[in-house]
Amino acid sequence: MAEKFKNLINGVWKDSSEGKTFENRNPAKWNEDLIGIFPSSSKDDVNEAVTAAKAAFEKWRLIPAPKRGDILKIVGDRMSERKDEIAFEMTREMGKVFAETKGDVQEGIDTAYYAASEGRRLFGYNAPSELQNKMNLSFRVPVGVGGFITPWNFPMAIPTWKMFPALVCGNTCVFKPAELTPKTATTLIEIIEASIKEVLGKDYIPGVVNIVHGKGRIVGEAIISHPDVDLISFTGSTQVGKRINEVAGGDLKRVSLELGGKNAQIVMEDADTELALEAVLWGAFGTTGQRCTATSRLILHKDIYDDFIKRLAEKVKNLKLGYGNEPESQVGPCVSESQRQSVHDYVKIGIEEDKANLICGGEFATDGELSDGWFYKPTIFADVTPGMRIEQEEIFGPVLSVIKCTDLDDAIRILNGTKYGLSSSIFTKNVNDAFKAIRDIKAGITYVNGATIGAEAHMPFGGVKQTGNGHREGGWTVYDFYTEWKAVYIDYSGKLQRAQIDNY
Q1: Which residues are marked as active site?
Q2: For the segment 89-136, what is each residue's pLDDT rounded down to a tens digit?
Q3: Which of 124, 178, 320, 357 could bond 139 through an S-S bridge, CB–CB 3.0 to 4.6 Å?
Q4: Is residue 29 domain-resident?
Q5: pTM over 0.90
Q6: Phi-psi region of 345 (alpha: psi -120 to 50; beta: other; left: phi over 0)
Q7: What is the tally of structural domains in the chain?
């Protein structure tokens, strides 16, 4: 019988108030591997979690930031000890190969240690006063209760990007993970909760972290609309992000949105083509193309176009599809049946509406053991032109559109020609071209001679245009989102001094 999991609310693991549940299954072995049963929660469960987080905040904010950092150090240690176990279960849950899920966990470990160190670096500022015998200073204070809504493709890394900085700053958490990856999320909360208990001991505070499983339209909606939730951090589709911004922004909540991408890799005629081939193979088909930073477009200089496509297609056809916990597997399944169908619908658009040239793939992979999972053959379209739907819209699957350019200016124009601006890449040996691309590409991230994927925990992560609302995750920048600035004026003159009066 499958294991039954629960919500964590106010330090207690409990079923949903309505007793409803949903199944979590392996997308590579759908019929034979039932991972667990999880609570399908209601608005009442969210209300209880928010009440708990609000009460906990008044105590948690008073825990010294270095001590909150100590807790995250323990979290990182526990994640390190369980790295292989967590990665194995994550592959069962969402499909990407074991080496990638280990990287997902490692990103969370890196984030834990980085956030732990920030407990001693939440610096404020002093400034001179315009008056005698007066001191001016400012410092950071936590915002309050945070609502965190995360996707399934990085079920460890992305929640840690959000919650670890929030916690070290003194905020409390109500966490709604993706329905497709509830086990990884539960494991993360178990580790955080255990670490809080270990460090605080008899001073343990229940409700600092809460997890509420369930549907986005119920649980997510209840979180974003709750009057006692002070901030929202969301990663997902642009459509849902706009809805969140409308609802939460209407109540003047602080909102961070990380949304879609249509990332492109440029390869110039002077590039190291073998390196560029390796990069696009990894960028387009790693994680089965299910990354917001995935290489969805390949922009090739006209002089290398035909040869590069030929060599790429040969490599793609040799990729080994399979269950990600089997060592020989290179590409896992789509995360669900509906996601695979969505990918296939876009392939049909590419063929029938866009009239692009299908080079390889374009169909379900059903040979042998693949028939029990949501596998899709890695797909390449050539002769794609700017403006085609497969060139403009986020597909979120193993589909690559290849576009021809005449020169660097043309390549940058094509790359910038979508509503998104998350990640980008250029391959060239010309330092002048590289710096021009860095300057002119409209994206939050640009790689030179590297794939469009591969974020590092200590660097800002985010995009421009409809990729988000301007906030960054990761690095030092995220701490501005999770804190408010408080200005303090200390007058030790012994008399009333009137600032901002014309005394000059």
Answers
A1: 258, 292
A2: 999 999 999 999 999 999 999 999 999 999 999 999 999 999 999 999
A3: 124
A4: no
A5: yes
A6: alpha
A7: 2
